[in-house]
């Protein structure tokens, strides 16, 4: 009894009530709050559409063009980045550090391509936030998503730097996994934004 007591130092080991690690669970809870934030913006968008749809019978209102083709290409770019992120996550879990690094670099490149394309789209779209309620909600939704992409790219940059410094391994891969979960959320949310704002 005394020998056992002397061998144990510090607090007792942590017992988890679920198979999901606290860090992953924390990211899922954060994403849940982000979904509610996007939900509020979607509510405003649809409210505006219902209220103002009858002004001239068109949506978007006459004079406003949505570049659906450019946004569609951007969608392909972002979905591809989700695949490369999955490649990076799977690679490190299998001990393939080269695959992880390549996947992260490719994801970074695709993410920046998406964001820069959206900035160019903003400059060429032909209307601004103060031109109508449609313009305000359009920039509100796409801009909110763009801000999340920027945050995701910042996380990816840190992950990539750490990856090239050898910080990740099959036993310690949560940094890649958690960042990947956030990036997949950004990708899925863009598909919803694209269908809602550019196609419907």
Task: Note down, in words, how this protein is organized.
There is one protein chain. This protein is mostly helical. It has a single domain (21-199), classed as Four Helix Bundle (Hemerythrin (Met), subunit A), CATH 1.20.120.80. 74% of the residues lie in helices and 0% in strands. The chain is built from 6 helices and no strands. The chain has helices spanning 2-7, 22-52, 68-93, 97-124, 133-164, 174-199. Helix 2 packs parallel to helix 6 (174-199). The model is unreliable at 1-5 (pLDDT under 50).
Share of residues in helices: over 70%
- Uncertain spans, ≥5 residues at pLDDT below 50? 1-5
Write down the domain tally: 1
* Strand residue content: under 5%
Which value, in Å, is the CA radius of gyration? 22 Å
- Per CATH, the class reads Mainly Alpha
Q: Quick one: how many beta strands?
A: 0
Integer average pLDDT: 85
Question: Assembly state here?
Answer: single chain
Determine the CATH topology.
Answer: Four Helix Bundle (Hemerythrin (Met), subunit A)
The N- and C-terminal alpha carbons lie at a distance of: 71 Å
Anisotropy-based shape: elongated
Per DSSP, the total helix count is 6
The CATH architecture name reads Up-down Bundle
Features:
6 helices, 0% strand, mainly alpha, disordered N terminus, Four Helix Bundle (Hemerythrin (Met), subunit A), elongated, 200 residues
């Amino acid at each position: 009894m005394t020998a056992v007591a002397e061998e144990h130092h510090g607090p007792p080991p942590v017992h988890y009530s679920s198979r999901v690690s606290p860090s992953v669970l924390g990211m899922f809870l954060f994403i849940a709050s982000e979904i509610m934030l996007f939900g509020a913006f979607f509510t405003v968008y649809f409210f505006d559409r219902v209220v103002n749809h009858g002004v001239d019978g068109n949506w978007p209102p006459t004079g406003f063009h949505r570049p659906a083709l450019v946004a569609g290409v951007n969608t392909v770019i972002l979905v591809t980045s989700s695949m490369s992120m999955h490649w990076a996550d799977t690679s490190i879990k299998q001990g393939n550090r080269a695959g992880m690094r390549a996947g992260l670099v490719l994801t970074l490149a695709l993410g920046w391509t998406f964001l820069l394309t959206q900035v160019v789209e903003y400059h060429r779209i032909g209307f601004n936030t103060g031109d109508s309620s449609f313009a305000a909600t359009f920039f509100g939704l796409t801009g909110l998503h763009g801000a999340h992409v920027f945050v995701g790219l910042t996380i990816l940059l840190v992950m990539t730097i750490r990856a090239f410094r050898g910080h990740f391994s099959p036993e310690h891969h949560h940094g890649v996994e958690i960042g990947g979960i956030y990036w997949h959320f950004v990708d899925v949310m863009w598909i919803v934004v694209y269908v809602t704002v550019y196609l419907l």
